[in-house]
Write a structure and sequence with these properties.
The protein has 251 residues and is of the alpha/beta class. It contains 7 helices and 11 strands.
Length: 251
């Protein structure tokens, strides 16, 4: 079996550069194209697609461009791994429909760190036993979307286990708007912090009479995401399915 031809979109970004290192080091992959609007080998996916064979495109670009990038791939025979966050629920549904219709692999993961995925899974497990929970996510101050895709995905997973995470709370009035954070699925409050020094951290706080449970994950560098990215690229190349969340393919 030949090597998997990988194109990296957002190749000159910090995540893109890490993906290129990982692809180059993988015995079963070939770096087919570096795509970046700024000083890229190719400026667009379309230009790269016309010039080289692409089996899988890995996208780490911007929330403003990811949807159009994904539409192009899924309408032009390219399997897709999406690490860019900021997609809306209706957009994710449309990408799922296109993936199924065109028999292409598409995996969207808000977080590719195996530790972060386990944190999300542990939070879901704990949600069966706690009626109160909040999420705090902390990222570097160059992250454009808030809350993070990881926080949104975590809240969604938690909401499968509980219908209300503000049980027993008194009526609240914010004296400064937004002080209680954003309200996500089933009343989970999500708080976003943006400061230099952070890469990506998240903690889920569970409270009950007499006890607090904290589930936390910290990313120290971007290298920690690469095993998950490589796992996802291999998966979509072999399995023509739509997957939302790395936990769906973790054994």
């Amino acid at each position: 079996m030949g090597k998997i031809n990988i194109a990296v979109c957002g190749a000159n970004g910090k995540m893109g550069q890490e993906v290129i290192k990982a692809v180059t080091a993988a015995d079963d992959m070939e770096l087919a194209a570096k795509i970046d609007i700024k000083d890229g080998e190719f400026k667009t996916i379309e230009a790269a697609h016309k010039a080289v064979n692409i089996d899988v495109l890995i996208d780490f670009t911007q929330p403003s461009s990811i949807y159009e990038n994904a539409l192009y791939c899924l309408n032009n025979g390219i399997n897709l791994v999406i690490g860019t966050t900021g997609l809306q629920d209706e957009q994710i549904l449309e990408l799922e429909n296109l993936s199924v219709k065109n028999n292409l692999g598409c995996l969207i993961a808000p977080n590719f760190s195996t530790g972060a995925v386990l944190m999300m899974m542990f939070a879901k497990m704990a949600s069966k036993y706690f009626k109160n929970a909040e999420i705090i996510e902390l990222h570097h101050n160059q992250k454009k979307d808030a809350p993070s895709g990881t926080a949104v995905k975590t809240a969604l997973m938690m909401s499968d286990e509980n219908t209300d995470f503000t049980s027993g709370n008194c009526p609240e009035k914010e004296t400064i708007e937004g002080a209680r954070g954003a309200e996500a699925y089933n009343n989970i409050h999500v708080h976003s912090v943006r400061l230099p020094g952070y890469i990506a951290s998240q903690e889920v706080l569970f409270g009950a009479p007499g006890q607090i449970l904290t589930v936390r994950h910290d990313s120290m560098n971007r290298e920690c995401y690469m095993p998950g990215v490589m796992m996802a690229a291999r998966y979509v190349n072999e399995n023509k399915k739509f997957v939302y969340g790395l936990e769906k393919i973790m054994d």
